[in-house]
Amino acid sequence: MAIDLKEALPSVAEGPARVFSRMIKLSRGLFALRYLAADDDRQPPAIGVQTGPRSREALTIVGGPDSEEGFLCKPGDAAVLVSQGDAIIVVTTYVGRHALSDGVKLKLDQIDRLSARDSELVRAARPQRAKAVPRDRRAPVFLSGHVEGIGALSLKAGERLGEAGSSHVIEGFAIHWPRRPVGVDIAYGCADVGGSQAVETLTGDFVGTRGKGGAIGGLFVRLVGERAGQFALDAEAVFAGGRRVVSSSQALEALVEEEAAPLVALSVAVLGTLQRETSSALGARLDVSSSQDTGLIQAASLDQEATALTANSIMGTSQTGDQRGRRNVGIRPGRIRLFRGMQRLPAPEAAE
Questions:
Q1: At 18, phi and psi to the nearest 5?
Q2: N or C, fewer C-beta in 10 Å, the chain?
Q3: Burial environment of residue 316 by CB neighbours within 10 A (0 to 12, 13 to 18, 19 or more)
Q4: Count of other CB atoms within 10 angstroms of residue 339
Q5: pLDDT tens readout for residues 200-234
Q6: What average pLDDT does the segment 17-41 reach?
Q7: How far is the CA of 19 from the CAs of 102, 164, 276, 341, in angstroms?
C-alpha cells in the first residue's frame, strides 16, 4: 500500500526529496534513541523510527509528548525503545527538497544498565571520608654522608648511616628533607674528636669532612622554626665503645667527652603531629567532543542486511551524492557513527 509521505509527516511542507533507511538490531533491554544534531538546522531531516520485520511483538516504541508518532522531527526529540528480546528497528531519514544537507547525528543508549563511564562518574562524585594520619607519621627525611673505609653513601628515609659496633667511623653527614613544610627546618652541626667548635647549618648542607681521616666526636640536631612544635624529632647517635645519645622531642645533643669516641652510627627521623586529610571529589571531565568525534574508519559498502549497533553510541548520516551514498563508516564504541549508504528508494511513493 502506497503511503502519502506529506500526510504521514505534516511537518514537511513538501514531499521528501531523498529517503534513506537502515535496520538496527537490538538486544533485550531499555534503550533511548536521541536526535542530537542536524547539519541543516533550518530544515533538519525528519527521522522515522518503526519496528522491523517480525519485531512488533518484542518491541515497543514510545515517543516524546511533543513529537509526531513514530518520528523524531528535530534535534532534541527522543524515543524510548522497550525490547523484550532480539528485535529490529528501522531508522529512516526523510530529507526535504530544499534542505542544504542531509547529515544528522543520532545517539542510541541502553539506559537500564551502567556503562563504564557511568561507573567512573559515580566513583568520582562519591564523597571521600576524612582519614586520620597516625601521630607517628614520618616525614621523608633521609641522610647522606661519608664513612671511613666505605666512601660516600646516600640512604633512603628511615635508614641509619653507619652501624653500631662498626670500626668504620662517620667523617661527615648531611640531613635532607624533601618537600619540607614551610615554617620548620632541621638545624645541625658537628665537632671533631678534638673538640673543635660546631658550626650550625640547615637541611641539605654537609658538615664534617670527606676522606681526610677525620672523626666526629660530638654533634647536635634540633628542630627550628615557628612550626617546630608541630613536629617531633626522633634521632639517635651511637659512638664507638657503645655510648648512645637519644633525642628529646625537639633536639639531640651529644657533647664531646674528654676521651671522645668517634661517631659510628646516626639515625634521624621527624614525626608529624596528628593531622587530618580529606580527599575532595573532582568533577569528572566530559570531553565527548574531542575524544568521541574522531577516529572514524571507512568500511565496505552497506548491504541490505540488518546491522548490529552497540548501545551508548552515536550514529550519523550524511548523503552528498549517489557515489558517496554507497559508502559507510564502521561502528566503533564510544565514537560518532557516521552512516553512509542508506537505502535510497526509487521514489517517495514507493515507501511502504
A1: -140, 145
A2: N
A3: buried
A4: 25
A5: 899 999 999 988 888 999 999 999 999 999 999 99
A6: 88
A7: 10, 89, 64, 11
Question: Which residues fall within 8 angstroms of residue 229, CB to CB, at 6 or more apart?
Answer: 250
C-alpha cell at 265: 652510627
339 Cβ partners below 8 Å, 6+ apart? 22, 302, 315, 316, 317, 328, 329
List the Cα angle 113/118/120 in 5-degree steps. 135
Higher pLDDT, 72 or 346: 72
Strands 78-83 and 244-246: unpaired
pLDDT average, residue stretch 323-352: 39
Four-CA torsion 128, 130, 135, 137, nearest 10 degrees: 30
Q: Is 125 helix (H, G, I), strand (E, B) or coil?
A: helix
The gap between the terminal CA atoms of the chain, to the nearest Å, is 6
Q: Which of 63, 68, 66 is nearest to 33 (CA)?
A: 63
pLDDT digits (tens, 9 = 90+) for 275-305: 333 323 333 333 333 333 333 333 333 333 4
Tell if the pTM clears 0.70, that is, is over it.
no
Q: What is the pLDDT of residues 109-127, one digit of tens each?
A: 888 887 777 777 777 766 6
Model confidence pLDDT, tens digit, residues 170-192: 999 999 999 999 999 999 999 98
How many residues does this entry show for the chain?
352
Q: How far apart are CA 236 and CA 217, in angstroms?
A: 14
Neighbours of 88 (CB within 10 A): 19
Domain ranges of the chain: 5-126+284-350, 133-277
Distance between CA atoms of residues 271 and 182, nearest Å? 15
